[in-house]
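FORM 7B: Structural annotation worksheet

SECTION A. Query
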Amino acid sequence: MDPHRLAALTAVIDTGTFEAAAAQLAVTPSAISQRIRALENEIGQVLVVRAAPCRATPAGEVLIRFSRQQHLLAAEALAEIRGPDRPAGSRTVVPIAVNADSLSTWFGDVLTAVADWSDVLLDVRVEDQEHSTRLLRAGDVLAAVTSEPIGVQGCSTRPLTAFRYFAVATPELVARYRGADGIDWSAMPLVRFNDKDDLQHRILERYGVADAPAHNLPGNDAFLHAIRHGLGWGVGMAGQIERDLAAGRLVRLGPDDHVDVMLYWQRWKLRSELLDRLTDAVVAAAGERPVWSGR
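SECTION B. Predicted structure
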């Protein structure tokens, strides 16, 4: 598998078009097309779905993972050979996936650790913890914080810690939707991060409610701001909402209205010093939080 062909495949999927891939690699779109066709002929399978944007087929995802692994190992080998004489500013890009709640809380300690490393550039993709394995499977990231205990093929899994999310709302919102029989869960609007965020719906299922009006706010600050200002109810980690609960700005919706989420760290199975170092930083940061944080 020619590395130039693999690079062309990766660039097409990363940028979404043959033209953008050509610009990234400083070649012509025709050259990109020829390399992709040659690679498909070599493998004997279609590797790219020619759509807008282009996406990899399952066979293409396997080759993209291989290409990124090859790139990482080559970068580490060069760094080891050059040692202190490596070019100033030469760093290895490490794409990872982290859910928004972790990124705004405990994962900050990982960023603090990486700040002292002179050989790494992080490329953090914000993805729901239940869907980050998709990025691993597609070869888009080297590692991910996920709620999936079963590893993606070719990846190892480390348990991190578990967090408890509480269902909360403003007292005014609760009063508006509370009747003689309790809260009208089917009518009271909820706030979720995006349509992949099902934590609120786990609460609804306990009350036999299949759905409710939902606002989508894909930003951690905006999500919490909306709950604090009565746009709808939602779930928050203890560290995010404890001051609001203490001040009475938010109230819990019931003693059992919580969701427990166990988090794991999945990474590619590579003999990579860089990935080992990053894994140690992630495990250390998560380990400083007690299990069921905020009980």
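SECTION C. Observations
The first strand starts at residue 48 and ends at 49. The longest helix spans residues 58-82.

SECTION D. Sign-off
Analyst initials: ____
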